């Protein structure tokens, strides 16, 4: 079924909006995916504040040209689906990688992180990065470790003296009751 010129313009505008408003873009090849599986993947990406849609290659190529993104014509061959996120690229990559590992329907073509092109291997590596809250907690614990050690070191002599005094007081109390 042919798409009208007006509908094509609307799709290009939508694609262009996705490309320009999102820092994380992933192009995938899909084959043999069922509607239920596709809806499950879309739901999973929506839960993390991202999106995943099947696209028209020629129209997405126009959107990439308008956004001045570096691309290869091979990216826009076969059946292409497009994942995008404004933030949190690791979560988007992890969601799609986990889905791809559980099924044989998705293959990675290329990704873009802040306008820079990244390979399929880097997308898979990015999927292994912990979520942002965990990264923040790890950084905070690393930054606080020296201060925590300093506080322990400074408080240790006082704690030892208190322990000795307590032992003497308990010993005196035991000798008075005996």
Secondary-structure element string = HEHEHEHEEHH
Biggest pleated sheet: 5 strands, antiparallel
Numbering strands along the chain, what is their spatial order in the largest sheet? 2-3-1-4-5
Overall 3D shape: elongated
Strand content: 15-25%
Q: Uncertain spans, ≥5 residues at pLDDT below 50?
A: none
**Roughly what percent helix?**
55-70%
The class by helix and strand makeup works out as: alpha+beta
Average per-residue pLDDT, rounded, comes to 87
Terminal-residue CA separation: 102 Å
Number of strands: 5
Count of runs of 4 or more consecutive helical residues: 6
Radius of gyration: 28 Å
Question: Can you put this structure into words, describing what you see?
Answer:
The protein is of the alpha+beta class and 178 residues long. Helices cover 60% and strands 16% of the residues. It contains six helices and five strands; from the N terminus they run αβαβαβαββαα. The chain has a five-stranded antiparallel sheet with strand order 2-3-1-4-5.
């Amino acid at each position: 079924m042919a798409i009208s010129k007006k509908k094509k313009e609307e799709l290009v505008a939508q694609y262009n909006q996705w490309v320009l408003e999102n820092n994380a873009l992933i192009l995938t090849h899909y084959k043999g995916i069922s509607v239920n599986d596709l809806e499950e993947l879309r739901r999973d990406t929506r839960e993390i504040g991202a999106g995943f849609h099947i696209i028209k290659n020629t129209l997405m190529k126009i959107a990439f040209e308008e956004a001045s993104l570096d691309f290869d014509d091979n990216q826009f061959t076969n059946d292409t689906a497009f994942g995008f996120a404004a933030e949190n690229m690791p979560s988007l990559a992890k969601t799609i990688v986990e889905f791809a590992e559980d099924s044989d329907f998705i293959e990675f073509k290329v990704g873009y992180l802040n306008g820079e092109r990244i390979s399929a291997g880097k997308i898979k590596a990015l999927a292994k990065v912990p979520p942002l809250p965990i990264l923040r907690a790890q950084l905070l614990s690393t930054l606080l470790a020296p201060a925590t050690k300093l506080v322990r070191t400074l408080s240790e002599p006082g704690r030892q003296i208190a322990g000795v005094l307590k032992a003497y007081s308990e010993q005196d109390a035991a000798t008075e009751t005996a």
